[in-house]
Every structure is written in structure tokens, then in C-alpha cells.
Amino acid sequence: MSDEEHHFESKADAGASKTYPQQAGTIRKNGYIVIKGRPCKVVEVSTSKTGKHGHAKCHFVAIDIFNGKKLEDIVPSSHNCDVPHVNRTDYQLIDISEDGFVSLLTENGNTKDDLRLPTDENLLKQIKDGFDEGKDLVVSVMSAMGEEQINAVKDIGTKN
């Protein structure tokens, strides 16, 4: 054995892993899959028959849940694919800063100030207009694989 010391750098955060394995043949439309390292929502699945070399193949067409890009992948149906852990959390909108960051109220009463306004023009307009009109807004934040983004907004009434 060598006398060298080995230092391993852990890139994972404590707690659950960012993805879990799932057999390709069991992933359905509207499910989630990781393609080219990006968390995606499956919009189309087609499965080919077993061929000369014995594996049925699944052809996935999916949309990146954060940037909306269309990605495709072909995987043997018996092989495992990575599936991202996707969470949705609702927060009440408190403030919008000049530099495009939002201040959100969490369930335990703390504030979350590390999220930017969404890049989707329609959603951005809904949030800014509602906020300027003094409405109480609740934003839905989708998180997967260490990324977070506002993906929906709800009006829960006007402030008193």
C-alpha cells in the first residue's frame, strides 16, 4: 500500500440525492427525466420493438423545466435513467428589489432572498403588475438538482 494521503472532495450536499434511478421503460409522459444533465418534463415517449440486438428502446422528447429547451434521448427500455427530485413550494411575495431579486416569506416566517424574477415575460408581467397594484401574491417555486425558479403566481387578495 502507498503512504500517500487521499483527499476526496464531496460535491453532494447533505440529505437526499438530486436524482434517483428509474427503469426507462417505466417513465411516462408528464413524468420527469434527466437528459444531458438537465431536469426535464417528458412530453413524448415512444418505444421501439426489440431489434436484432435484443433491446427495446425508449425515445424521450422532453422540455427542460428551467429554460424551456427541447431535449431528446434514446435509452434501452431495460436500462436505468436518472429522474430528478422535483419539488414545488409556495411562498408569499414580500418585495421586489431594484436588481430583480424577490423577497419571499417562508412557512416558518423567515425570508428567502436568493431568487430572481422569472425570465418568462408573461409571468414577469403578472408578478410586477400584481405587486404594483398592492395585491397579495403567492409564487410557486420549482426546485430540482440544485436549481430553483419561480414558475407560477397566484393572487390571494389585496393587502389591507
TrEMBL record:
PTM info: eIF-5A seems to be the only eukaryotic protein to have a hypusine residue which is a post-translational modification of a lysine by the addition of a butylamino group.
Say if the entry is tagged with keyword Protein biosynthesis.
yes
The residue ranges flagged as biased composition, category Basic and acidic residues, are 1-12
Gene Ontology process terms (BP)? positive regulation of translational elongation; positive regulation of translational termination
Keywords noted in UniProt: Hypusine, Initiation factor, Protein biosynthesis
The Translation initiation factor 5A C-terminal domain sits at: 85-154
An example Gene Ontology molecular-function term: translation elongation factor activity
Q: Where is this region: Disordered?
A: 1-21
Under Pfam families, the record lists: eIF-5a, IF5A-like_N
Q: Does the keyword Cytoplasm apply?
A: no
| PROSITE patterns linked to this entry | IF5A_HYPUSINE
Note the superkingdom of the native organism. Answer: Eukaryota
Primary role? Translation factor that promotes translation elongation and termination, particularly upon ribosome stalling at specific amino acid sequence contexts. Binds between the exit (E) and peptidyl (P) site of the ribosome and promotes rescue of stalled ribosome: specifically required for efficient translation of polyproline-containing peptides as well as other motifs that stall the ribosome. Acts as a ribosome quality control (RQC) cofactor by joining the RQC complex to facilitate peptidyl transfer during CAT tailing step.
**PANTHER family attached here?**
TRANSLATION INITIATION FACTOR 5A FAMILY MEMBER
Q: Which family does it belong to?
A: Belongs to the eIF-5A family.
- Name by which UniProt lists this protein: Eukaryotic translation initiation factor 5A
* Organism, as annotated: Capsicum baccatum (Peruvian pepper)
